[in-house]
Amino acid sequence: MTPGEARDPSLNNKRRLPEIHPVLRATATAAAGGTLVIWWPAFTFGAYNAIFFDNVLALWAVASAVLLSGLVLHRKVAVPWRSWIALLLPSFWIVLGMTAPRSKGFHYLHYFEVAITILSAPFLTWLLSKILLSDYDELPAVERFGAVGITLAIGIIAFLLGKFNYAFLTCADFNVSGNNTPPGCAQGPPFRLR
Question: Membrane-crossing residues (predicted)?
């Protein structure tokens, strides 16, 4: 700034924050997006030994939105065939659930559901980051895979938090939040009231 330039009055009282590095911004955005997809299914799998249908349907909705975007723009954008297959997996699970006989009880559907949810979340993290973040392809491979790795790490930690929920939550916490109590939860008042 030269001595004759007018000073922006809004800067007088504001403390300047350091600029966030674009690599950190892109990696953190990708990791945060992935963890939003994986943390609750992983926690419920740890706490209840089940992934709830709404988690799978949320994954289906995101995958279907990306899939339909690729179909709408197929003349302008080429989507690799492996991505199409991965994006179709949640839809395949729904169709399989509709067509499987209910009387025999197809237990493999539960494992397929778990696999789709847990494995699709990191892939969706990568794919959505590639699509939504313009700088993502410019990141070094370590940072790109780092976001996927962070998503996996949060998924594993959320699973363990669900498995050992009795260490920091009570049955009342689950009741207050509108969830069923998982087996082995700790008795007592909600954690926030201790």
Answer: 20-40, 52-73, 79-96, 108-129, 141-161
Q: Cβ contacts of residue 181 below 8 Å, gap of 6+?
A: 171, 174, 175
Q: Of the candidates 130, 133, 121, 147, which has an alpha carbon nearest to the alpha carbon of residue 60?
A: 121
d(CA 108, CA 104): 11
Residue 95 makes CB contacts below 8 A (sequence gap 6+) with none
Q: How many C-beta atoms lie closer than 10 Å to residue 5's C-beta? A: 7
Residue among 130, 18, 50 nearest 82 (CA): 130
Task: Read off the tokens for 6.
Answer: 């007018």
List the structure tokens of 192.
């926030």
Q: 170: number of CA atoms within 13 Å, CB side?
A: 10
- Residue 169 CA to residue 89 CA, distance in Å, equals 34
- Nearest partner of 40 among 59, 26, 27, judged by Cα: 59
Phi then psi for residue 186, to 5 deg, are -80, 140
Bridge partner residues of 170 (DSSP): 186
- Contact 125/34 with Cβ under 8 angstroms? yes
Where do the domains of the chain lie?
21-163, 166-194
Q: pLDDT tens digits for 126-182?
A: 777 777 777 777 778 888 788 888 888 998 999 999 999 999 999 999 998 889 999
* pTM score, whole prediction: 0.72
